Structure formats: structure tokens, C-alpha cells
Amino acid sequence: MMDRAMMDREGTFTGNRGLEKEEPLIFEQGSPGKTAVDLPEPPASKNRLGGLERRAPIGLPGLSEPEVVRHYLRLSQKNYGIDTGFYPLGSCTMKHNPRINEKVARLPGLGDLHPLQPVSTVQGALELIDTCAHWLKVLTGMPAVTMNPAAGAHGELVGLMTIRAALEDRGDARKRVLVPESAHGTNPATAAMCGYAVQSIPADDRGRVDLAILRERLDSDVAAVMVTNPNTCGLFENDVQEIAKATHEAGAFFYCDGANFNALVGRVRPGDLGIDCMHLNLHKTFSTPHGGGGPGSGPVVLSEALAPYAPVPYVVHGPDGATLVEKPDDSDGKPFGRIKGFHGQFGMFVRALSYMMSLGSDGLRDVSGDAVLSANYILARLQDTFRVPFPAPCMHEVLFSDRTLKGTGVTTLDMAKALLDEGFHPMTVYFPLVVNGAMLVEPTETESKESIDSFVDTMKHLAERAAAGDVKFFHDSPYLTPRRRLDETTAARNPILRWHPPSLDHAAE
Amino acid sequence: MAKMHFTNEHEWIRVDGDIGTVGITDYAQEQLGDVVFVELPEVGAQLEQGGEAGVVESVKAASEVYAPVTGEVVEVNEDLADAPDKVNGAAQTDGWFFKIKLSDPTQLDPMMDAAAYAKYVESLQ
């Protein structure tokens, strides 16, 4: 009789692990000619391609319907998501997507709309966009918002394009954008994309923007300062009002990366802090799906000074109900153009509004309170096990360094791999760069104390095992995942980006 | 062998006449892990001290490389395009990034020597 150890050693005849299938690529399955649907041969027609018609088969796989269904279901079973378990990926806010949002989004009057329907038939949808926009303005204390951007980084781009338009309109095109080290990595990328030179501002020993150096570098050539608050060390930028003041005195605009607004919602209004422009990630703070589950959505709130330059389209109210301003020429302001097809991620507005209205203002206040509480609970329980580089408390995410692993031969990456075997998606590792071997943990407000405790206990157990010198165990982990430790270096140096079908290789010879 | 100077940002520069050879330190490559890509400045580019000179990307992170001194880039290490692992294997010799013609040699004066840099690295642990 085979025991478990023998099974692990010898594997199975098929390569499957019990009912977990080893799934080949869809192109490696099926046979040519097999199909899930029978369509009649197209009628004969005159060839008008002038000799440009395809001569070889295009290599589509032939599968029956049950084979296709099984293939994609098996792939989906390899997926790990927030619906599967704890997912403390710092700076990504993997929190529960309430099912009421999904129910509302599937109402036929919202789910079955087409963006090209006559405006008179989609009054409810326009009202919904406008109501969602209204609450985003209320929660941020800002006078205007553009709902168009497709996701957070797109929101940043739209924000900086708005700033650039405002500066150019006053005949004051500037050349530089200041970005602190404690900002999200997309911020400098956005500034560069907009044609600005990026100048970095170091963090001080509290993990926050070094205000003295920021002041030193602010001059009449700086278009904007981009600050992430709470920053990417999970810390509130206490000097945010001084940063705003200094920025405005230099004639620049203050951009805030609002990806971490889930730590502030219902408690802090960015408009009160002197912020000119901030994107909101509906797929983070407002619980819409992301990470493969759905598109992001990144509305940008704007100050009075920037509002006229926001892109089209936007909803306005007239004598015949709601309508859309679709062209810059039809606008009262000076829109810099259009940045997204149709009206933004409408399905996400539905879910975000459902979230806001089901929680109410008191519920949203609890969201930020509980998110911060969860992170500080982890900080309190793990601060004797891992080094906390900046003084507590933290905001919605907690940062540890690898200091206590030094000398054990076990790295941050090894910890992450060992967590996989224990059934946890690892935290964010090696980011932010301001500390060595960073481990950034974001538990979110929707995780129970039991699951957080289980994670903390596992981290303590692994730290003890590392301290005890069990290096081989760590270096060989993970043991139980569909694939073991991957060779990331070779994958990055010599990536194979395309699968080549053997039949076509043969045909080309 | 000419003396090496080190920066807080973990670059080294070795000067021979008015040409300085620049790379990242052994400590920096160790922190980065396996280097997979290096972006170098163009020959002829004018660099400012402390300004961005290139990017080094590893399996863990992408980091900027800063110019330790002001000057003009006169040569870059073409080998790194195909063999970025040279940065791991020989950070302070064959894994050099670029050569720069110094505009102002006095910029070297406040930089750390090998002993001072070793102490600095120790303070970061």
C-alpha cells in the first residue's frame, strides 16, 4: 500500500494531484476540425483579397464545449483571490467585494445598457454617474470630479494632464515634478509620461517627506508635487498642510495619490488639506473588484483652479433632464480633451455607489477605522518578531524590515514562499525600497480577527524556524503549490513571451 | 590602481586623469539581488551630479543610478546589455556602468573612501 510519503516522492501516473488537474495550454489540447458549434459552410463568394488571402491554417485549437468549459474552470481553480482566503498584499487593498454591489450591477436597467443608447433612454444611468460623483466630492471635500479615468494610474495621468493644461493656459509651462521616495511608483512614471523631469525627494528618518529638502527644491519651474498620503510606508504625512502651502507659494499644484484613501474615508477630507487634485481607486476604497476580477476605476477630484480643464464627457442637468457634454467645444470650461471611450467604467460606478449607500457615512467611517485597527493589531502582535522601521502607529498597512532575519540565511522572499505552503497569499515584498527586505502587510477592514491571528501565528512560527537555522526548509519552499520555486532570474533575463505551435512550425518549413 | 570614491547612493567612481569610471557597489548589487537589466546613459550625454544616469533592474526592484559627478559620458559598458549578471559577479570591476569626463574634480573631495564607505554600510545594517 502506498503511503503519503511515497506518493509525494513518486507522483502520480497522470501528473494530476488528486482532483487537482495538471492542465495543458488550450493550444496543446483538442484536434483540428473538432468544434463546439456546427455552422453551415459559408456560401461561395468572389475572392477580393487580391492574393493576400491566408495560405496556412491559423492554428486555432479544436475543442468540444465540455472540454472548453473544463479547461477554463480548471484554470480558475488555480486562481487565488480574496474570495479564497487572506490576501494581505500591501498597497493593493485586497478587500471583500460585497455581493450586494454585484446584485445591483446586474439589475437589467443598469446591466443591459448600451453606451450608444439615446440619452433620453439612460436618464437613470446618468443620474447614477452624477450621484456617485456627488458623494466622491462630499467625501473628499473637493468641488469637482472627473469620472472618466479607467484606473488609478490613468487617474494620475489625467490629473497631471489637467495640471499641465492649467499651467499652459496661464502661460506658465513648467518643467519639473517633485515626487517623494515615499510615493507610489506610478507617480514618477506618470510625471515622465506627461513630459516632466522627475526630481526625487528623500524620506526623513520618520519615513515621511523631508520637508526641508522639498522646500529647497521647490521653485518657479516645478509644475506639481505628488504626494501619496497615507504614504507607501503606511504612514500619514503629518506635514501635508505645510507641503500644500509651500507648493502653492511656488505657484505649483499639489497632487495627492489617493490610492490609500481607504485609510481616511469618512474621517479626513483631502480638500481641507490643500490638495488640488487626487485620484480615487474605486476598486480599493469603494470595494469594486480588481486584480483580474474586474476593471479598475480612477475618478479624479479637482480644486476650483483645475476644474475647468477636466476632460469630457461629464454629466450636466438641463431642462430635459440629464445630458452629457461630449465635446470640448460644448463645454463652459476648457477641457483638455477626451481620455476614455464612452463614460468611464460605468459598472464600477454602480458598485461604488451601492457600497457608499449601503454603508452610509457612519459605515464608511468604520471602514477606515477598522482598516487602521487591523493593521495596528498586526503591528502590535509582530513588533517583537520583526523590526518595525518607523515609530507606530501605522495607518491601513504595516511595514516590517528583514533586520531580524539577518544572519539566518533566510530572506524576505523565502518567508513569502513558505507562506504559500501555509495557505496565505504573501504580503508585498521588497517594496517600498526605503527599507531593506520590506514586508508590507495590508489586512483590510474585512478580515476577521481569527484569520488575522492565524496569519500572525504563522509569521511567528516561520520566524522561529528561521532563527532555529532551518535554512534548507526555506530555500526549498514552496512544496505544495502547483509549481515549486520559479527561476525568476532566468525568466527576467531570457523571457519566452510566445508559445509556438509545433504544427505551424512544421507548416512554415 | 587609482583610488575609488563612494557616494551615499552606493555608486563608486575611479578616476584616471580627467575620466572617471562609474558603477554600483558590491553592497548595492547584494541588496538588489540578481540583476536582470541595466539602462545606461548615451555617450555624449551631459550629466549633473546627483542627476539620474541610468536604471538597474533586479528580480526584486528597479533602482535609479545617479551620476556621482557632473560631466560628459564618454563610454558605456556595452557588455551589460547581454550580461547584466556581470553587475552581480564583478560590481566594482568588470560590471562598471559608464565613463564620464569630469567637469569639476573637486566634487570628489567630500566623497567617502573605501574605509569610510564600509563604515557607512555597517551603519545601515
Q: Any descriptors?
A:
heterodimer, A: 509 residues, alpha/beta, Aspartate Aminotransferase, domain 2, Aspartate Aminotransferase, domain 1, 2 domains, 12 strands, B: 125 residues, alpha+beta, six-stranded antiparallel beta sheet, three-stranded antiparallel beta sheet
Structure, described:
The complex is a heterodimer of chains A (509) and B (125). Chain A has helices spanning 4-10, 65-77, 99-105, 108-111, 123-140, 152-169, 186-193, 211-217, 240-249, 346-382, 412-421, 449-467, 471-476, 488-493, 502-508, and strands at 144-146, 176-180, 197-201, 222-228, 253-258, 277-280, 300-302, 314-318, 321-325, 398-400, 428-429, 439-441. By secondary structure, chain A is an alpha/beta fold. The mean pLDDT of chain A is 93. Chain A has two domains: 100-356, Type I PLP-dependent aspartate aminotransferase-like (Major domain) (Aspartate Aminotransferase, domain 2, 3-Layer(aba) Sandwich); 369-493, Alpha-Beta Complex (Aspartate Aminotransferase, domain 1). The relative contact order of chain A is 0.13. Chain B is an alpha+beta fold and 125 residues long. Chain B has helices spanning 26-32, 79-82, 86-89, 114-124, and strands spanning 4-6, 11-16, 19-24, 35-39, 46-47, 52-58, 62-66, 71-76, 98-102. Chain B has a six-stranded antiparallel β-sheet with strand order 1-2-3-9-8-5. Chain B has a three-stranded antiparallel β-sheet with strand order 4-6-7. Chain B is globular. Chain B is 21% helix and 36% strand. Chain B has one domain: OB fold (Dihydrolipoamide Acetyltransferase, E2P).
